[in-house]
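Supplementary Methods. Inverse-folding protocol.

Structures were first reduced to a discrete structure-token string of length 469. This string, shown here, constituted the complete conditioning input.
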């Protein structure tokens, strides 16, 4: 270029630096930057950011940190891209604890760092399941005078609900609100669920009231989400109170609201009140749907009221509601749990006649029941019938048969099933698939075959490990 009367500028050098960094030749990139400076061309933020990224990709994170320090000396301000290149690069090429230690030292050495550096580090900590470290960093940011924005706090909250005690979580949230932070709908829901899990109902109520005062409950759907939180936590009375607040705000409960309450009562085993709400659905001019009936049938099955469950099943047609595969599955499972496997098979055949295609779950309950009863031939017949129905067995189906066959010392048949599993890529064979075979072979004195199966298991685990790495 100089021979042609042209002088390279910063853009020219940056293009070269980018090229050599992409090829992993970071030392050459560093040489080019020094050449720039000798030529009187000042490297800019793009130059330094490419160097940071290059050093991180070469697993030379300490040198990437030095580049940031050099930028500061030269009066070049780092951008979001610079910080993200360093933080993401450190977690990408180093073991996560080491990456955090190194980046913590860097942050401690420079109290004037831009908040985006903290935000990116928080993001990486949360993605690497370093919840405790993320919460500690957030507290450190607050002490240093950084105002956590809603986006940053939305990263902290999922970590905080996992590691903080109820009172500490409350303190963290209240401090954020006191400093002018705005919790979004999803964050409030996460916090409420956390307090409900630890049975701290008063604090759950507190943040529900805060949601109302913040105007975040502006539709039936938003109220239904809160009602679902209380109902699933077994706090049905609080869910009912929420409905009153909802109605006072001018919103009428819909079918989803009632289905949620019915499920809540059934979770508590309170079938009587669940049925009462079914009547209330009709009083509000709503039509119960397949979810309503299936939930009620499931609750009746769990409380061993099979006759009532089948009466409810019959009522569906009277209401013009067609049962789906989940409805049949609930009844099949209920029959099998009560020891009525033959009736479950009859219901399975009825499904096909009614035009409902069964799934693997439809077959699993009766197959497992036959296996437990040591009626292997019947279990195998049902297993073979699955293909006739166009249903593919899942790992649960295979494992039930393998264990049952091994218990009866029919190991060769179990091995054939494992081979069939291995030939189907979508169904994984895990340790608990092989152990019954290994145990049965050992009991039968076929030690060499047991050893071969153990080696196969170790090879499989080693292969899985290499894939994950």
């Amino acid at each position: 270029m100089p021979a042609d009367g042209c002088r390279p500028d910063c853009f020219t050098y940056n293009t070269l630096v980018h090229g050599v960094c992409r090829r992993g030749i970071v030392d050459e990139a560093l040489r080019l930057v020094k050449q720039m400076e000798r030529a009187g061309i000042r490297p800019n933020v793009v130059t330094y950011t490419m160097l940071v990224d290059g050093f991180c990709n070469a697993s030379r994170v300490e040198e990437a940190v030095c580049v940031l320090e050099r930028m500061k000396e030269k009066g070049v301000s780092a951008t979001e891209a610079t910080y993200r290149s360093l933080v993401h690069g450190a977690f990408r090429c180093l073991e996560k604890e080491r990456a955090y230690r190194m980046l913590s030292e860097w942050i401690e050495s420079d109290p004037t760092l831009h908040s985006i550096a903290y935000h990116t580090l928080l993001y990486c900590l949360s993605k690497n399941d370093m919840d405790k470290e993320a919460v500690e960093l957030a507290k450190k940011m607050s002490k240093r005078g950084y105002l956590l924005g809603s986006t940053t706090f939305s990263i902290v909250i999922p970590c905080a609900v996992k590691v903080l005690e109820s009172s500490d979580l409350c303190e963290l949230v209240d401090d954020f609100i006191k400093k002018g932070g705005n919790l979004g709908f999803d964050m409030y829901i996460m916090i409420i669920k956390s307090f409900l899990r630890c049975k701290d109902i008063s604090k759950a109520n507190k943040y529900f009231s805060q949601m109302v005062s913040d105007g975040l409950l502006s539709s039936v759907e938003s109220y239904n989400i809160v009602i679902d939180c209380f109902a699933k936590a077994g706090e049905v009375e609080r869910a009912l109170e929420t409905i009153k607040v909802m109605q006072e705000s001018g919103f009428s409960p819909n079918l989803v609201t009632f289905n949620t309450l019915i499920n809540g009562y059934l979770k508590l085993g309170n079938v009587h009140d669940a049925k009462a709400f079914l009547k209330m659905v009709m009083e509000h001019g709503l039509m119960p749907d397949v979810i309503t009936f299936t939930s009620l049938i499931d609750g009746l099955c769990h409380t061993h009221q099979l006759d009532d469950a089948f009466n409810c099943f019959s009522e569906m047609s009277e209401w013009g509601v067609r049962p789906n595969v989940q409805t049949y599955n609930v009844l099949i499972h209920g029959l099998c749990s009560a020891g009525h496997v033959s009736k479950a098979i009859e219901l399975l055949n009825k499904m096909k006649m009614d035009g409902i295609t069964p799934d693997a779950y439809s077959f699993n309950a009766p197959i497992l029941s036959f296996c437990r009863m040591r009626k292997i031939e019947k279990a195998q017949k049902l297993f073979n019938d699955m293909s006739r129905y166009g249903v593919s067995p899942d790992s649960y189906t295979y494992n039930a048969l393998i264990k049952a066959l091994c218990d009866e010392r029919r190991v060769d048949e179990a091995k054939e099933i494992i081979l069939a599993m291995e030939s189907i890529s979508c169904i994984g064979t895990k340790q608990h698939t092989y152990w019954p075979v290994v145990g049965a072979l050992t009991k039968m004195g076929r030690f060499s075959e047991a050893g071969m199966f153990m080696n196969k298991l170790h090879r499989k685990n080693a292969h899985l490990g290499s894939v994950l790495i």
